[in-house]
Each structure stands twice: as C-alpha cells, then as structure tokens.
Amino acid sequence: MSTADKRFKITYCTECGYRDRADSLATQLEQELKAECQIQPAAEGVFEVEDNGVLIFSKKASGRMPEDGEVLKIIKGLAEGLSLEEAQSVAGPPPSAILEWFFSLFRAPSDSNK
C-alpha cells in the first residue's frame, strides 16, 4: 500500500519532539479503526491530522496538542454525521480547561519549590 492509499496523515514537528505523539496516535487509529496512517515529518511546531485529505486537527489552529482520545472522538463524530466544527467541539477539552491553560501562561511561578 502506497502512502497515497493511507486514510490518515499525521504531520509532526521533528524539532519539537512530537514523533512519539505521532506514533502513539497512529497506533491508536490503526488499532481502533483498522486504517493505515502516514506519518510525515515537518517543522515549525506543526502537529496536524488529516482524514482522507481533510484537516481534522491542527495544533496551530487550536493552540494546543490534542487530548488523549480527542482525534478518535472527532473521527467518530464525523462518522455519526456531525459537521467538522461540531465534532471538534464535542471531542475537545471543556472550555474551562482551555481558559485555565491560557491563564496559567500569565501566572508567576509558584514559590512552593523553594
């Protein structure tokens, strides 16, 4: 089977050390969905997942890496007839988790380590 025949394509940043995440996700998709994955190295912080050429997850667009099981939930949502936006919304972390992460970027480091 050529890489063009593979259903899923995972593009990851080699400089960021995302190879293990890409491998883990590919294994999960291959085991759960019985579909082969192409893993494509890239640069500049990229971590993207395509399903038959359709971008279903992008670290650049979301500002974060996918949660465990999130990509699989998006795929299952699409299979159930949800739009891509609906599937991403249902599968992603709750808004409070995103806000907590965002605000953590501006907090001073904890003094408890002294």
Automatic annotation (TrEMBL):
The keyword Ubl conjugation does not apply. Signal peptide: none annotated. Keywords: Redox-active center. The keyword Disulfide bond does not apply. SUPFAM superfamilies: Thioredoxin-like. Pfam families: Rdx. This is Rdx family protein.
